Amino acid sequence: MKKISIGCDHAGYEYKKSIIKMLEKMGYEVIDHGAYSSESVDYPDHIHPVAEDVESGKVPMGIIMCGSGNGAAITANKHQKIRAALCWKKELAALARQHNNANILAMPARFVSLRLAKEMVKIFLSTDFEGGRHQRRIDKIPVEC
Predict the structure, then answer these.
(1) Domain of 12, in residue numbers
(2) Exactly one of 10, 66, 79, 87 is catalytic; which is it?
(3) Residue 97: which CATH number?
(4) What is the pLDDT of residues 68-88, one digit of tens each?
(5) Cα distances (angstroms) measured from residue 12 to each of 39, 72, 94, 128, 141
């Protein structure tokens, strides 16, 4: 069974519930790191565990959401092996995979419809990385600490 990790803050809670149902119908085992209600929470508490799942290889990909998507993406991208892409259009979700080999999809729950969010998830999960010149660029992203 395919596995995926998901996390959000309170702004993404309603979308997360619906996206999890969709993913399960698609045959995914979903690791849900919250939020577990629409009560205000701090997004890093729910985003770092998703990034850790992907970084460790527990899952190949993750989905994260917050109101703007920015805080979620910034948090996830603090992890060295993470390439979280903030997407608000279907084309961006496809390019995130094709050109950037993104392994986490970040979405702005307050700025996209649920329908669009679900479409982006499907595109993100079904689009392959093109490699080639894009791999060369990705290889230049990590910095030595």
Answers:
(1) 2-139
(2) 66
(3) 3.40.1400.10
(4) 999 999 999 999 999 999 999
(5) 11, 11, 21, 26, 29
